[in-house]
Design a protein that fits this description.
6 helices, 6-stranded antiparallel beta sheet, Nuclear Transport Factor 2, Chain: A, single chain, alpha+beta
Length: about 190
């Protein structure tokens, strides 16, 4: 009788330990939305700093290889192209007055992919032949994290002019996701 009670107690404790280990494993594998938002915002801040410093390699490395392949883009050629654009921007004396990245309202989960839409706002000034103008821009960054990958990738929302392109580039994306409008306004000053 004592052996039977001891066996039942062992089974009972074993089942509790098994339950707790399964619960803690699933909690670790599915981080909370707040934790995901915190992580994606830290990564977006690194990207923002790289952008403002003209660090082209960091910008290109932040783009998902899956999307670049679908676009037929070669990473090395893309780095060179973006360097040329960055040099043009420097030569025309473009300066960020403001560049903010806001927290996403939601983190989407689909087919092992995490996705967040981070609203952005920027004001860029430039001076050409003693004429100063400002470019006000409201848009978003699309943050993606694929299953089995520990890295967040980013795409500028300006590239998604229509939902068909968005659906083509992002595998199995839900069709009910509303993308924010991208607004660019040029203001000429004296």
């Amino acid at each position: 009788m004592k052996a039977r009670i001891k066996w039942r107690l062992n089974v009972y404790w074993f089942s509790i330990i098994l339950f707790l280990s399964i619960a803690s494993t699933s909690a670790m594998s599915q981080p909370s939305t707040e934790k995901l938002v915190t992580i994606v915002m830290m990564e977006a801040e690194k990207l923002k700093q790289a952008s403002m410093q003209g660090n082209v390699r960091v910008l290109v490395d932040a783009m998902p290889t899956r999307v670049l392949k679908k676009l037929g883009a070669n990473r090395r050629a893309l780095i060179e192209r973006i360097k040329k654009i960055a040099d043009l921007i420097k030569n025309k004396q473009y300066r960020y007055e403001k560049y903010t990245i806001s927290r996403p309202k939601r983190v989407y989960r689909f087919n092992g992919t995490l996705m967040a839409i981070l609203p952005t706002e920027s004001i860029v000034t430039h001076k050409i032949k003693n004429k100063k103008s400002r470019i006000y821009s409201k848009g978003y960054l699309l943050a993606l994290k694929y299953s089995g990958d520990h890295k967040w990738y980013f795409l500028n929302g300006r590239g998604f002019k229509n939902k068909r392109l968005f659906a083509t580039l992002i595998d199995n994306v839900p069709t009910n996701i509303e993308l924010p409008k991208v607004i660019v306004t040029h203001i000429k000053q004296k």
